[in-house]
Amino acid sequence: MSEAVQLKTSPHLRGMHSVDKIMRHVVYALLPVSLFSVMQFGLSALALIVTSVLVCVGTEHFFCKRSGTESTVSDWSAVITGLLVALILPPGFPLWMAAVAAFVSIAVGKVFFGGLGYNVFNPALVGRAFAQAAFTVPITTWTPGMAHRRFLEFIPTTLTPPFLKPDFDAFQIWVESLKIDGYSGATPLAMMKFDHIEVDTLELFLGTLASSAGESSALLILLGGLYLAFRKMLNWKIPVAVLGSAFILSGIFYLQNPEVGLPIYPSPFFTVTSGGLMLGAVFMATDMVSSPVTPVGVWIYGILIGSLTVMIRLFGGLNEGVMYAILLGNAATPLINNLTQPRIYGATRKRKEKAA
Amino acid sequence: MSHKLLDIQHFLRGTFNQGIHPPENKHFTAGKPIERLAFPPQLILPLSQHAGKPSVALVRKGQEVARGEPIARADGFVSVPLHAPASGVVKDICLMPSARGPMVESIVLDVYAGDPQEVLYGTDVDVDAIPASDLMQAVQDTGLVGLGGAAFPTHVKLSVPEGCVIDTVLINGCECEPFLTTDHRLMIEQAADLVAGTRILMKAVGAQRAIIGTEDNKLDAVEAIQAVLKPDDVVSVKAVQTKYPQGAEKMLAKALVNREIPSGNFPSAVGLGVFNVATATQIGQLLPKKQGVIERVVTVTGPGIGRPGNYIVPIGTPIRFILDALGFEGSARHLIMGGPMMGGTVSSLDTPITKGCGGLLILNEHQLTTEEQMKRYPCINCGACVDACPMMLNPCEMGRMAHKAQYETMAERYHLNDCFECGSCSYVCPAAIPLVQYFRVAKSVNRTKAAAS
Fold first, then answer.
1. What is the pLDDT of residues B95-154, one digit of tens each?
2. Residue B208: which residues within 8 A CB-CB, separation 6 or more?
3. Do both B280 and B328 map to the same domain?
4. Which residues in chain A have Cβ-Cβ distances shorter than 8 Å to B371?
5. What tens digit of pLDDT does each residue of B199-235 get?
6. DSSP state letters, B106-136
7. Do residues B6 and B155 both lie within one domain?
8. B377 CB near a chain A CB, below 8 Å?
């Protein structure tokens, strides 16, 4: 009998989860949303997703090599960032701009902070915020989905040569060639905010309207989220808090609508199914690294994001506020963690006095 | 698991907040009745098998001893005597390897091979006639320590601190550690002794009632105990939810009587006395005969052993002897003394079974390598540890601080000293951060610092 001695300390068992496994499953959960996006917007969406993922993974690998550390791309988190960046951009977004956004998201949003686990903000949203500031026109140019030649040709703006502005004239001609009735190039949120036209909530839920590449189908996003929550890889309290608070707050405003004329405030159903709220609530607010850990903290964080989204949408200059709401929530995370330390077992002062 | 989700009763049972559900793995031995193993040729009896001062040897080298005879006496109040687990001759009193690591003073006993090994030592007494005030001494004379693993002298727990009144005795039969089944089998097979011991404990601390608590994966034990209880008995038995670490006394107090033991206090602060079922059973068996602890039930289990089961072995039996008898072909590397969540590894197979050791877990190569190959990642703030900690501490934050060696802040602001090292945080951590291990280091550094100043 050999006497190879190895002294370890308990526990000698480990749970089933590991970081790379969690991240891999988040990717799985994002796949249906991504596939739906490709189905809806065709080649352009596919190219956008592929570009963004490749640039994210490449950037992380490059920086790891540059700093002389082991490459961390095998933990799959860069893939998630890549998918999310693509899914929150318009489907016809020029590929070179998407590459810049993806680079910024990993480089500035993640690597500069020290990599996985140290980033303060959700990297994908950092990239998107950068794109929003740098490429204001392309990021608000929406393409209609389900164009009949979508699997045969790119949306003209997609293939813009690097460092050039997209050719919007060609884009207009292309849109007109599709002969879609009543297409205004506006997303449901913009239509609501500026023209007070509310689209059908069911269509929003199923995702058949103009939107960012992956924000359209609330149903698929929810299914992905449910899968992760069921596997305990996602804190279900966060999406519930975000969507719940957004629903209630917008519901309160909805009741203030004038009885005649166009509605000023959208219905709560419209609020939770439109724009990026569902994707943000399920896949971005729940980013473990940048969300609180304390049981009370996650509720505060979720409610903060939900309410901020509604306030920005209704009273801000933008028609969409999810991104800034989540970034603000991320910024508040350390503070929330600090203020909501759990009450430990046996810590009440009253009991101590009684015992003494 | 799945059937439990449909079991409404399960959710109506008491429990504590948070905790984890590691695979139970009790099937190896839960159905195996307690068996007796042969006597080993030699026993190693450390003089320190308990928390407190080591015992003082009463025998000399070469002296013959009878089974059950006291061979070492208690040295002061927080100490217990030791009894000969077999008839034989004292070969030596010397330093021998111990489970904790260091060599400790031990009595080495050569067992007489042809001896019938009857316990001739002891006198019948009427326990009911012993006044409550003398029970503490009677319990100390048995050499009993907490058999659940802590090995704290039982009689010390019977001395109720001034100003405290104990109204309820809790008997801990949770056995929340995966794999282990000694308490489970004891409750089924020796329920009468268990209840008798419980009554003695109640009398000793002056409690009006006692509750035997067990997890609801041992409902057959509940039935067995109920069968020996009188109608309207002051002793009752209650099942709580199966969850780790339900067997911690603080968790049990919360689950059974919904009382929280204040930080830094003993259960007596909230009117409770908590004892392990094996301890109570031994009291029920030993006190009426005025005998001492000479053997205990050990679960030998795991995928790496040929004949897993629950075995009565004399205290001091070398692990190697047990494993050889049961078909073991691995090395010390595969062995865990105690359960997988809180048990320790041993440096040598010549380490003996001591009073506090209720299990030998033998893992196989596959399990060990999967464990060792877990990759370390940085903390991703997932909060799994925060949701697991039964004490509602913040292991996530403390882990980060431990990384920066801010041990004092951990103790002052994050309640480090309330951690009882159940290991739930390390178990759930997807980044494989050795959280509880960090906390052990932090506590010990703080202790050293406090002792130095």
1. 998 887 788 899 999 999 888 888 878 888 888 888 888 899 999 999 999 887 778 899
2. B167, B168, B202, B234
3. no
4. 12-14
5. 999 999 999 999 999 999 999 999 999 999 988 889 9
6. EEEEEEPTT------------GGGS-HHHHH
7. yes
8. yes
pLDDT tens digit sequence for B324-380: 999 887 777 788 888 899 988 887 888 899 998 889 998 887 777 677 777 889 999
| Contact between residue B294 and residue B83 where contact means Cβ atoms under 8 Å apart | yes
What totals of helices (H) and strands (E) does chain B contain, helices first? Answer: 16, 17
CA distance A240 to A225: 11
* Residues 6 or more apart in contact with residue A56 via CB below 8 angstroms: A78, A79, A81, A82, A85, A102, A103, A105, A106
Tokens found for residue B421 = 């090292």
> Measured between alpha carbons, how far apart are the two ends of chain A, in Å?
56
Query: What CATH number does residue B211 fall under?
Result: 3.40.50.11540
Range of the domain at A79: 18-141+143-170+180-185
CB contacts under 8 A, A 64-123 vs B, are 75, 115-118
Residue B205 belongs to a domain:
yes
Tell me, yes or no, whether A64 lies in a domain.
yes
Size of interface A-B (CB pairs under 8 A): 178
Tokens 């988040």 -> residue:
A26
Cβ contacts of B92 within 8 Å, gap of 6 or more: B61, B107, B108
CA atoms of B89 and A220, how far apart (whole Å): 77
Do B249 and B189 reside in the same domain of the chain? yes
Report yes or no on B372 lying in a domain. Answer: no
ipTM for the whole complex: 0.85
**Same structural domain, B180 and B259:** yes
What is residue B78's DSSP assignment? S
